[in-house]
């Protein structure tokens, strides 16, 4: 890698992974990040065990408090106790703060880390840049500026969401309660947190026919799912041709997945989970579940009534998640897009993957494959562990429910078929680990891949294998 120092000469600097101690520095930063998240979760759990944050005045079981804390920090939304009826204002405020910290930290964590490195004066050239699609593109001062813009964007969108929701809620309840419901809902929706304070584990089923509430929530969820990077590129460039290939890929794949989820849910649940709605509202209900399915976890139908076919399709949609740089989980939209482009190129007989008149580096495709394999192996392990604990200690729910719940946890979505509150303590701990690993796993996998990346100065002889 070459870095121009002045107009007359250049020098070639080795990457940190090629220098003594470079990899150790990367591992240190990764461990520090994990430790910071664990500390936030621990503090949140301790606060939620206190008796004065519950409506009953009784202390919350440590396993349930830990579960809710991890779910909030990982912006998942799975719950073992009802948020509205179990917690008072103090408990709900703790959950909201944890969601906000979790959403912002995972959205701008890289920029904050770079800023800290610049203050410590110990950054290397590679650590002073941010990685995007395999290329070094963002200098340190721009990373700090990006952090400020993302935080400003977050609060502006959440504020507009509060105003839009308050207009509706203020007609149904006292002003102070309507305002708090608006704040909690806006933060949860934009950060894809999945928590609600509607009561009795109902999510937003009571608003399945409200066009205004559905529209506001869908906009908040979408803006959170596709990330500030994509939104800023769309606003700045305005024209499709001027947008970056990454933005185009995210928008195309995001739209395609919404279409798949919408068609599946509408067709399979017209006389099922959607049957309680007037026919004119059912398309809106199907669209809402599709938009919410890949990270938000807010629903306007009871997923305990959803067919096995829809559950199966939505397990796959939850696994995809949102865009990189968003609070959404999963393997990420661009990862699936890259694999789809690579497969299409191979089927066409092309020598290399091409996307919007650009070639995709082979290493980007390989990294996407690794992320997907690691993620779905993690889901398999989580589903097997949850099935095992419930077989030994719990109520032995149907396997599709186990598969659905474990994917919802590891993809940090928050959809539930209703089995989570009834899980054994061991099963709840399996989901706690799944949510924590699901939040950190893909990020640290990519971090590790980049840390170990180096250029070979030689080529080995090629060989062939029989595939398929």
Share of β-strand residues: under 5%
- What is the total tally of β strands? 6
| Low-pLDDT stretches | 1-22, 110-138
Radius of gyration using CA atoms only: 23 Å
Backbone structural class: mainly alpha
The strand order across the widest sheet is 1-2
For the termini, the CA-CA separation is 38 Å
Shape: globular
Explain the overall architecture:
There is one protein chain. The protein is mainly alpha-helical and 468 residues long. It has one domain. The chain is built from 14 helices and six strands. The protein has helices spanning 22-49, 62-73, 83-86, 89-120, 140-169, 175-190, 211-237, 245-269, 282-292, 308-320, 333-348, 362-392, 399-410, 425-451, and strands at 2-4, 10-12, 130-132, 135-138, 354-355, 358-359. A two-stranded antiparallel ribbon has the order 1-2. Strands 3-4 form a two-stranded antiparallel ribbon. Helix 13 packs across helix 14. 42% of the residues are buried. Mean pLDDT is 83; it is low at 1-22 and 110-138.
């Amino acid at each position: 890698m070459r870095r121009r120092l002045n107009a007359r000469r250049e020098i070639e600097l080795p990457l940190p992974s090629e220098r003594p101690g470079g990899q150790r520095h990367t591992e240190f930063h990764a461990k520090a990040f994990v430790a910071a998240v664990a500390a936030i979760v621990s503090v949140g759990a301790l606060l939620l065990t206190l008796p004065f944050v519950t409506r009953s005045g009784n202390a919350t079981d440590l396993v349930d408090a830990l579960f809710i804390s991890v779910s909030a920090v990982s912006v998942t939304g799975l719950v073992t106790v009802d948020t509205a009826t179990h917690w008072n204002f103090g408990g709900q405020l703790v959950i909201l703060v944890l969601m906000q910290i979790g959403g912002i930290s995972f959205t701008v964590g890289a920029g904050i880390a770079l800023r800290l490195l610049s203050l410590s004066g110990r950054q290397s050239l590679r650590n002073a840049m941010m990685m995007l699609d395999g290329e070094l593109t963002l200098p340190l001062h721009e990373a700090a500026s990006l952090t400020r813009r993302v935080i400003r964007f977050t609060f502006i969108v959440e504020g507009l969401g509060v105003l839009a929701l308050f207009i509706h809620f203020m007609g149904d309840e006292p002003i102070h309660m309507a305002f708090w419901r608006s704040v909690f809902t806006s933060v949860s929706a934009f950060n894809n947190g999945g928590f609600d304070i509607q009561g009795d584990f109902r999510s937003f089923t009571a608003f399945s026919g409200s066009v205004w509430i559905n529209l506001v929530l869908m906009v908040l969820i979408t803006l959170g799912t596709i990330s500030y990077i994509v939104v800023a590129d769309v606003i700045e460039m305005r024209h499709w041709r001027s947008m970056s290939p990454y933005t185009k890929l995210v928008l195309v794949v995001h739209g395609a997945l919404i279409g798949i989820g919408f068609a599946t849910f509408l067709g399979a649940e017209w006389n099922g989970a959607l049957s309680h709605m007037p026919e004119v509202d059912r398309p809106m209900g199907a669209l809402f579940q599709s938009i919410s399915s890949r990270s938000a976890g807010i629903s306007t139908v009871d997923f305990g009534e959803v067919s096995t076919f829809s559950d199966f399709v939505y397990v796959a949609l939850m696994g995809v998640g949102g865009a990189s740089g968003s609070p959404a989980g999963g393997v990420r939209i661009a990862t699936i897009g890259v694999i789809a482009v690579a497969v299409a190129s191979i089927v066409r007989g092309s020598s290399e993957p091409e996307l919007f008149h650009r070639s995709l580096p082979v290493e980007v495709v390989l990294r996407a494959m690794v992320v997907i394999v690691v993620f779905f192996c993690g889901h398999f392990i989580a589903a097997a562990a949850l099935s095992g604990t419930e077989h030994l200690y719990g109520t032995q729910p149907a396997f599709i429910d186990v598969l659905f719940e474990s994917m919802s946890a590891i993809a940090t979505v928050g959809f539930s078929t209703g089995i989570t509150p009834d899980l054994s303590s061991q099963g709840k701990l399996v989901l706690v680990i799944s949510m924590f690993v699901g939040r950190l796993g893909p990020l640290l996998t990519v971090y590790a891949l980049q840390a170990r990346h180096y250029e070979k100065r030689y080529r080995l002889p090629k060989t062939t294998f029989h595939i398929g």
